[in-house]
Design a protein that fits this description.
The protein is built from 27 helices and 17 strands. The longest helix has 23 residues. The protein is of the alpha/beta class. The radius of gyration is 30 Å and the shape is elongated.
């Protein structure tokens, strides 16, 4: 389906100037993925990502041992794959090849043969898919790709003569690429990150936070246990909290054994790395500094303890500084609450007290998870899966705290929510007009005694895919007081958020409750009765997301070729209801024209879409079907254009459950009159 492009008329007079917003994001591997993706989609954000490279698990750890002095390439590769363009075939092919892993258990001779064949561009004996993807690379990409593999093969061959053989099992090709690049760059790690980023043509900036010191991460737990590597920190462990982390010099770290005394190890080898000068400059000049979520004790705290990081952040007194808490617990955070995370964050940034700093020096806003109690999952092994926030025990300024549900359907941070709040924060402070960024549709489904149709409706809505618009979705079902199994059925549909009113009221009350729960920046109304086609939501959403209309109605009037025949099939021999229905809709449209100088063909349609901020600003009051005409009245009074798009409609009969009555029509008419001459909103 390719609906026509719609261009609303807009005025550009007196608009604030447009500019770029410089955002620096402390990141790890996957924890900030959705936030990064949201930032990348906004054309006015200039993004710099800071990582540390002290990961040492799996093939990353084996490469660090195989090439002494090299830091871990894994998080570099993950972030670069996320930042690289996906607009054409060659970029997608490079990403596929980078993520491809060699087979588990691959023996050394087979691994070396594979690397040599790639270096020689001989893919004949390899996977046909790998060969096809390699052929999609540009000539320059292919030459660089094979050159890095050749460099790695030469080094590995030299090591072979010394009896040092690399274990290729489950190794990502991107890690081998990075290792070859590192060797090509004369073992300068930060030069390698720059060269690697240039090779991938990434759209933003990626920096290793440190000067490249080859250190190794260990942790001490409160029960006295020691986690001897970054890999152990991010793996399953006992529930005792991690008490502290340390970065240890390579020589001292290599000499350690499980029986080593931690105190002696710390005394001989603990170090704070130095900041990368480019990272320092980025922090000092940023408009916004974001401390991202992720595996805190490995991906983030080691970055914060880097010497010079706190000083650069404190130096930048004009930036907004946003701490984003994890939503759920991780292996390294099994018992911590939000207060623990904040204390550990501040301790790491102060380098365990070496730098005197106050919370307000480094955090202006903090985002913590507020979980909807109606949808909180059961405890996991007796521990809440969400990191709790308790203002009574939170020992930092509460005015900095933003509590909301940040979670998307996959359990990750919804990056669009973070971007929404960031826009609100910076818009009030700096002279940058940030364009609206829409990322989530909330489809609100009100219902009353619809047990026959509700499950099918919700499943059809869940099947809608808005990825073509780069939008996510959430389905919010609100029961208006059903006496049948409607609510129980709705609760059983996976990923639907189901609520019910405390007291039976009406369709309007259910919609208002849904608006209150909705998190999207586009809100769509849709009924649970199968009278409308869910596919008609697409053009409604497109008109808002791409063409910037703020109110879109799905009109039943345009596609109806025989109104009289349709109404007779609904009302049968009841001529009174037939006449009221036929001419009642016309009366509402005519009344709208007379009262507001605006002709709306279908004021009572159940398919409507809105810009969420506009809808919430209407301060809706009506509890019944007259909510529809209240919306029309208030939009017209404010001068907002209502776009109407034809939709399919198959009405039910009274026997099938149709609920609207002539009294509903009279209330709708009275509401139009009331908001024209009396009530304000």
């Amino acid at each position: 389906m390719n609906p026509p492009t719609l261009e609303p008329s807009t005025s550009t007079a007196h608009e604030p100037r447009l500019s770029k917003l410089s955002v620096v994001l402390f990141s790890g591997g996957s924890g900030t993925q959705s936030i990064t993706e949201a930032f990348l989609k906004h054309p006015q954000i200039s993004l710099t990502i800071l990582i540390n490279a002290y990961d040492d698990g799996h093939s990353t750890g084996r490469l660090r041992r195989f090439i002494p002095g090299m830091l871990g390439p894994s998080d570099v590769r993950k972030n670069i794959n996320r930042l690289m363009p996906q607009s054409d075939q060659r970029h997608r092919a490079l990403r596929f090849l980078s993520d491809h892993r060699l087979p588990v258990g691959m023996e050394y001779p087979r691994g070396m043969d594979f690397v040599q064949r790639v270096a020689n561009q001989d893919w004949g004996a390899q996977s046909s898919e790998l060969a096809a993807r390699f052929d999609q690379l540009s000539v320059k990409q292919a030459r660089t790709f094979t050159g890095y593999f050749q460099r790695f093969w030469e080094y590995a061959s030299q090591q072979d003569t010394l009896g040092n053989c690399f274990d290729f099992t489950d190794c990502a090709l991107g890690n081998i690429l990075f290792a070859g690049c590192y060797l090509e760059e004369q073992r300068g790690f930060n030069r390698t990150v720059d060269a690697f980023a240039k090779f991938y043509e990434i759209e933003s900036r990626l920096l290793n936070i440190t000067a490249g010191e080859n250190l190794f991460l260990i942790a001490r737990k409160q029960d006295g246990g020691i986690l001897w590597s970054e890999a152990e920190i991010v793996s399953a462990q006992n529930p005792s909290k991690i008490d502290d982390i340390f970065l240890i010099e390579e020589q001292v770290y290599r000499s350690a054994t499980p029986s080593s005394e931690l105190g002696d190890l710390i005394a001989r080898g603990v170090r704070f790395p130095s900041i990368n000068p480019e990272a320092r400059q980025a922090l000092e000049s940023a408009d916004v500094i974001v401390y991202g979520p992720g595996t805190q004790h490995s991906s983030l705290f080691p970055s914060y303890i880097t010497r010079g990081v706190a000083e650069a952040i404190i130096c930048n007194q004009s930036a907004d500084k946003i701490l984003i808490s994890n939503i759920r617990r991780d292996f390294d955070m099994q018992e911590e609450d939000a207060g623990d995370l904040a204390r550990k964050f501040l301790s790491a940034l102060s380098r365990k007290g070496e730098v005197a700093l106050d919370w307000k020096d480094v955090v202006t806003h903090s985002f913590f998870q507020h979980q909807d109690r109606e949808h909180t999952p059961a405890l996991h092994h007796g521990v809440a899966s969400y990191i709790p926030f308790d203002k009574a025990t939170f020992s930092f300024p509460l005015e900095s705290v933003m509590l909301r549900d940040w979670e998307d359907q996959e359990g990750r941070h919804a990056g669009g929510f973070v971007l929404d709040e960031l826009q609100q924060i910076v818009q009030s402070r700096i002279d940058i007009a940030l364009q609206p960024f829409r990322h989530l549709i909330s489809i609100i489904v009100p219902a009353l005694n619809e047990e026959r149709t509700v499950e099918e409706t919700l499943k059809r809505l869940m099947a809608l895919d808005f990825q073509m618009f780069e939008l996510g979705k959430e389905i919010i079902f609100v029961d208006g007081g059903s006496t049948d199994r409607t609510f129980e059925i709705a609760q059983s549909v996976r990923n639907v958020k189901a609520y019910r009113l405390d007291q039976p009221k009406g369709r309007g009350a259910a919609l208002k409750a849904g608006i209150e729960k909705a998190r999207g920046d586009i809100i769509v109304f849709f009924p649970a009765d199968l009278e409308y086609q869910e596919k008609d939501i697409y053009p409604v959403v497109l008109s808002i997301a791409r063409s910037n209309f703020s109110a879109v109605f799905g009109t039943r009037a345009v596609k109806c070729t025989d109104l009289s025949g349709r109404l007779k099939s609904i009302y049968g021999k009841s001529r009174g209801l037939y006449l009221v229905s036929k001419y009642g809709g016309m009366l509402l449209s005519t009344a709208t024209l007379f009262l507001y100088n605006r002709y709306v063909t279908d004021t009572l349609t159940s398919v409507k879409g809105f810009d969420a901020r506009l809808l919430r600003s209407l301060n809706l009051q009506s509890d019944g079907m007259n909510l529809d005409t209240e919306i029309v009245a208030k939009l017209c009074r404010r001068g907002h254009y209502i776009l109407e798009i034809p939709v399919e409609y198959k009405a039910r009969t009274k026997m099938e459950g149709k609920k609207s009555t002539p009294m509903d029509g009279l209330k709708a008419l009275f509401t139009l009159i009331r908001f024209r001459f009396g009530a304000r909103g």
